Amino acid sequence: MFYFMFRTSFLHGKQTIAASQSSNLVIFKRSIGLRLFSNSSNGHSFTVSYLTRKCGFSPELASRVSNFVRFETPEKPDSLIVFLENHGFSRTQIVNLIKRRPTLLLSDTEKTLLPKLEFLYSIGFSRLELAKLLSDYPTLLRFSLEKRIIPSFNLLRNLFQSDDKAIKSIKRYAGILVSDFEKSLLPNMNILRGIGVPESNILLQLHRKPRTLMFNPVRLEEIVEEVKRMGIDSSRKKFLVAVYAFRSMSKSTLEKKIDVYRRWGWSDQAINEAFRRYPMCMTVSEDKIMSTMDFLVNKMGYSLTRIAKQPSFLTRSLEKRIMPRALFARELISQGLVNEFKLSVLFDASEKVFIRMYIDRFVNKAPELLKLYREKLKISGKKHRSELA
After folding, report:
1. Mean per-residue pLDDT for 313-340?
2. How many Å apart are CA 381 and CA 323, to the nearest integer?
3. CA end-to-end span of the chain
4. How confident is the model at residue 335 (pLDDT cuts 50, 70, 90)?
5. In this predicted model, what pLDDT tens digit does every residue of 35-88 receive, in sequence order?
6. For the chain, what is the radius of gyration of the CA atoms?
7. Could you give a single Gene Ontology term from the biological process aspect (predicted)?
8. Cβ–Cβ < 8 Å for 77, 71
9. How far apart are CA 14 and CA 357, in angstroms?
10. Mean pLDDT, rounded, of the chain
11. Is 285 left (phi over 0), alpha (psi -120 to 50) or beta?
12. For the packed helices 75-86 and 2-54, what is the interaxial angle rounded to 10 degrees?
């Protein structure tokens, strides 16, 4: 009996101690969890406060950004802002950079950012150029200088045999400096070489529109076949313009645009002919195709055949170029000064050339022509704005 009572008492005491230890452990864990939550909450609120106060973010934007980066002291973010200011970044560019790459707020500016900027300065970028480049494409700062940026620049320089052309290509598309050339650029160049595109044309395209060659090679092979079916010779410069046109949109978008031309009465043969003449006519938005065709066909009386044979001007501004010049041309014809216009000349000529060809040429016969043209510019702008209202 005594043994039993002792054992029960002992076990009961042990259970009490265990229960007490368990209870203390739960309290301890809760305390740690609460402290961690409190720290996280403090970091969140400080980050939101800093971004609204220092960067001018709205509370909603600051809260969203704080989901990606948090800090409890201003040292690192202040350091980043001062660093960027010292390198010529404007306030707007700094804010844009932080919006798009908020993790930069925690950067070690001297170790991670300064070497990249110094390299880009060394190859020829000015402070203003670099500030614009990085605020437009801040992803560049995420990549390794030694493993990606320097090798990419060296490869571009070797391809072009020119530092200047390499830099201009980067300015047009900064992503080329951090792209994986083995997966996109080099295979795509080989595809184009294999179908007879001259090397000079490939390099010209890389220089002027580098994004054209920076995508999945499987898709490029599909596009190449589509362009070849349209009847464009791969040895001509126009071939890569057509590749760019197809590259700029999805297949479904292209079909929608073709359908718009069909609704205006163009046959498939006319559409193909227009594309072969000027591939960029397929890059125009559906709304712009509709509004331009409506103006030229319904208001000006131009024939569909005539437009299809000279489609280059479809990419021009309806308000600033097509409407005022078409209205002015009608006046010239009505006065007997001109019998007919070639549409590509009428709408594609630069402003300087247009004034020389159609205003200065007849200044003695009709000295009021320049005034008349300026009136047409104003009228077309008012008409366009009223149609949008």
Report:
1. 89
2. 8
3. 101
4. confident
5. 333 345 556 789 999 899 988 888 888 888 888 888 889 999 999 999 999 999
6. 33
7. DNA-templated transcription termination
8. yes
9. 106
10. 85
11. beta
12. 20
Q: Which residue bears the tokens 């042990």?
A: 14
Structure tokens at 66: 């704080």
Residue 384 clears pLDDT 70, i.e. is over it: no
pTM of the model: 0.75
The 3-class secondary structure across the chain, one letter per residue, is: CHHHHHHHHHHHHHHHHHHHHHHHHHHHHHHHHHHHHHHHHHHHHHHHHHHHHHCCCCHHHHHHHCCCCCCCCCHHHHHHHHHHHHCCCCHHHHHHHHHHCHHHHHCCHHHHHHHHHHHHHHCCCCHHHHHHHHHHCHHHHHCCHHHHHHHHHHHHHHHHCCHHHHHHHHHHCHHHHCCCCCCCHHHHHHHHHHCCCCHHHHHHHHHHCHHHHCCCHHHHHHHHHHHHHCCCCCCCHHHHHHHHHHHCCCHHHHHHHHHHHHHCCCCHHHHHHHHHHCHHHHCCCHHHHHHHHHHHHHHCCCCHHHHHHCHHHHHCCHHHHHHHHHHHHHHHHHCCCCCCCCHHHHHHCCHHHHHHHHCHHHCCCCCCHHHHHHHHHHHHHHHHHHHHC
Identity of residue 43: G
Structure tokens at 203: 């390099």
Task: Please state which CATH class domain 108-247 belongs to.
Answer: mainly alpha
